[in-house]
């Protein structure tokens, strides 16, 4: 299985891949995602790398159907419990999950766990899964063009010089920004050019973090 480092740390009880997130913050994110995706009662939505379904719990009331998958069986079990009418299963985000089934596909803080050499495969699977004129939304992605500014703004003094050099060296070696959980930043401008040449409408918008962005691709 590809991306084994991310998988290993995602399923360990004593390691937090994401910081603890309060219920209010998860609702805040869900409300923002709903607004950006312009969800309606006609939408069939799939959550790529759904985790334990906390965001889906809030989105579910606005759409027709919700589906999702993750490579952690533990988190899928939790998603099934809190989104009882959703459809959830275990798989990798680099494998097929349908063709022309969903009106919209999205992920939140997931694409960072995709290795740069697999990112087009990751995105192609999302594009394949949605219907013609469907849209994919990959939210909260570490944006390569913002990383240098981020490091220079947040690492100061001799005590942090070692951390800066370690992170920035890994970044230069291929976008790896956290060797503990397998996180990568991505060249979103190159991705935008790649899919624009294929005739897709592609937009990049700022995330809530100063080094992250969202990418939106509208299928032909």
Can you put this structure into words, describing what you see?
The protein is of the alpha/beta class and 220 residues long. It has one domain (4-142, 185-218): 3-Layer(aba) Sandwich (Rossmann fold). Helices cover 39% and strands 24% of the residues. The chain has eight helices and nine strands. The protein has helices at residues 4-10, 23-37, 54-59, 73-82, 119-129, 144-154, 158-172, 188-197; strands at 44-48, 65-70, 87-90, 102-108, 130-142, 176-178, 183-184, 201-206, 212-218. Strands 3-2-1-4-5-9-8 form a seven-stranded mixed beta sheet, with helices on both faces. Strands 6-7 form a two-stranded antiparallel sheet. The longest helix is centred in the N-terminal third of the chain and has 15 residues, at 23-37. It is globular.
